[in-house]
Structures are given as C-alpha cells and as structure tokens.
Specification:
Elements (H helix, E strand, L loop, with lengths): L2 H6 L5 H9 L13 H19 L1 H14 L3 H14 L7 H16 L7 H13 L1 H4 L3 H14 L7 H9 L1 H27 L8
Length: 203
C-alpha cells in the first residue's frame, strides 16, 4: 500500500498516522527513538506491508508489471492500489477524499519536527501538490510512477508502467477489490492489538 492507504488505515489516530507515513524512512530498530504512538504506527505500517506482499491478489497484480520492472513490480502495485482506494465509492466521494487529505496534512504538520528530514522534505511536495488527492486521477498515478522511477536506482522510464496500468486497468481494479476486503479488517484488528489496552495510553 502507498501513502493514501497507510494514512487511511491509521484510523484517525494522530501518532499512529505519523508513524505509518514515515515508516519507510525509519530503518530497523531506530523506531525506538520516537513517541510510543509513532512507534505503533511504524509497526502497523510494517504489518500492512507484509500482509500486502503475501496476499494472492497482490501477487496477481504484480505479474502484469513483473516482466518489465522485476523487483519493483510491488512498488507500482502499491501506487495502483492507492488509485483504486481513492476512487472506491465505499470509502470516499471526491469531496470527502479532498477533506480527508487536508486533515492528514494538518496532522502531519504538527509532527514535522519529529520525523526524519528526508520525509519532511518529501512531505513539502506531497502537501503542495496534494499527492494524496491526485491519486484519484490517472494523471496523478502516472506522475507518481515517474516519481517512483526517479527515486529508484535501477529504473529509467515509467512510460511502460503507464501503458501497463491503462491496458490492465480492469484486472488491477479487481485485484484491489479482492485485496481490500481482506486488508481493511486485518489492519483494523492489528491497529487495536498494537494499541491494547487502549489509545488513551498514547495521547
């Protein structure tokens, strides 16, 4: 899952949200330097990623990117899943997505002095260009593919990924729907397990 899904699966807990969004910028046991709730968010993110990678629908979705992008196929699927989540009428309307992304940016602003500097630099552009909302559009996803390629050590182009995305749009949407019906309850249960005996201890 990519940033929109990780934000959504933080279930409106501010510290968990912060940890969930910065997790890829925190290596190994370095999470111990953060507030308890942020640590829980990092753990939640890692559990979500493991579940995502092992799900049969994700494995099927990766196949359409694998011949061209090999080990990066999962990264493209993560972005694709955010597109279908942003357009999932069971989760968002266009207006509610816009409101949700605005809330996410406001919450994250209050934690920028506690997050890794590389995330803070990226967040500036995420907020300025409203990445989370623009995952809703094909244009936004294709721009995200370009950003993925720029950050990757061994990729040189994203045009092929864009064509694959458009060609296999129905299949990828079906994979998302199969995956999401399992992911959402898994993430909710994991969230509550991590916060046990309750979010009040993490305020």
């Amino acid at each position: 899952m990519n940033y929109l899904a990780h934000a959504y699966l933080s279930f409106d807990h501010p510290q968990v949200l912060a940890g969930n969004l910065i997790s890829d910028f925190v290596k190994g046991k370095k999470k111990s330097g953060f507030l308890p709730g942020i640590q829980k968010g990092i753990e939640l993110h890692r559990s979500i990623d493991q579940y995502t990678d092992s799900h049969p629908a994700t494995k099927e979705a990766k196949q359409v990117f694998r011949n061209t992008y090999r080990l990066y196929s999962g990264a493209f699927v993560d972005v694709v899943y955010d597109h279908f989540l942003a357009n999932d009428e069971n989760e968002f309307s266009e207006s509610s997505l816009f409101e949700f992304t605005g809330r996410i940016y406001l919450v994250m602003e209050s934690y920028l002095d506690q997050v890794p500097p590389p995330f803070a630099r990226m967040f500036y552009y995420m907020q300025k260009e409203n990445w989370l909302f623009h995952y809703r559009s094909v244009w936004g996803i294709e721009k995200s593919f370009g950003g993925l390629v720029r950050r990757a050590a061994y990729l040189t182009e994203s045009d092929t990924a864009c064509k694959i995305f458009e060609t296999h749009y129905q299949l990828l949407g079906d994979c998302y729907r199969q995956f999401w019906k399992d992911m959402k309850p898994f993430a909710f249960d994991t969230f509550h397990s991590l916060l046990n005996p309750g979010p009040g201890n993490l305020s």
